[in-house]
Amino acid sequence: MTPNGLEDMKTKKNCREMKLIILLAITAAMIYGCTVSTTKSATKGGCTMKKKLDIRVMGARRYFLLHLPQGYNPDRKIPLVIVLHGAFSTPVQMEKQTGFSTLSDKFDFLVAYPSGAYGLFGYLKHWNAGHCCGKAAKDNLDDVGFLLAVMDDIQAQFPFDTSRVYMVGFSNGGMLTYRFAAEYPDRLAAAAVLGAAIGGQADAETPLWMPPKPAFPLPLIVFHAKDDQNVPYDGGISPRKRGERTYTPVAQAIDFWVKNNHCPDEPRTETLCRDQVTKTKCADPVHDNDIELYTMDKWGHRWPGRYFTSRLSQEDPLKDFAFEQIIWSFFQNRHRQTNSLLSR
Predict the structure, then answer these.
(1) Tell me: the pLDDT tens digits for 27-78?
(2) Residues 265-285: pLDDT tens digits?
(3) Which of 12, 18, 211, 242 shows a CA-CA span of 20 to 30 A to 284?
């Protein structure tokens, strides 16, 4: 074979290899949304990646999704929002339903979607919130420690503003949010809980579990529907799940945080969305440690955001209601307070 023939074969081989590399890169982009590289040229943002930690449960490494906003600049520290899914849900579903990645692109903040442990084929994930739920609670899985590890891992690669870290949790994820906020209020600037109980009992023989008294006050926004059949608004046994497990009422959670925050004002109530939503606020005009409760008469146990409300009829007063935007408005101007204020 002539030297030119050998050269042609090498060229064709290189082309095939290059095509394979490009194909693999495209496949990876489709799977993970963006690169994990932290280089300025590679990290453009507007994408969601999967990151695994060296923490294993039943042999499987624990992971979280991380969304970088469009135009992400690693030289500028921005806020971090941690969003926790409910039992038997997934980070992918939570990202899709909550719309926080869309808000991230618009308002420039990082979003982490940690994954619960156990599960089957990537599903049935859940959290140990102390009093609930499932195998995670039975085995006393250290989910609080996992969330701390998630924060540390993000900070190591994508440094964020540590004074502007917020946590959002729905259902079982909301229960863990209550627990984390109580145990580590100094790591958060504010928290949001939806469709969750702060405490409960596995059965009549088990003592009531409640989180410890927080060392510091923390701003909190809560949502719950009165017709929630999974985690009843007034507490007690779940009408849908039945069994022996009981949950504390929403009022007990609000009272817990109002007392913790030393809220000086009497709660004020107003109605929204043609009386479909009731907002009760206990304001702290001096230290900004407000407590807000949003109650719906009829919404059940689902995320109260545009993913669902956009499908309502134009005449429905809840059409396009987006609680994710209310949460971000509550979060965005709040910073973790200094120790002098926290210890009052």
Answers:
(1) 333 344 454 433 333 356 789 999 999 998 877 899 999 999 999 999 999 9
(2) 789 999 999 999 999 999 998
(3) 211
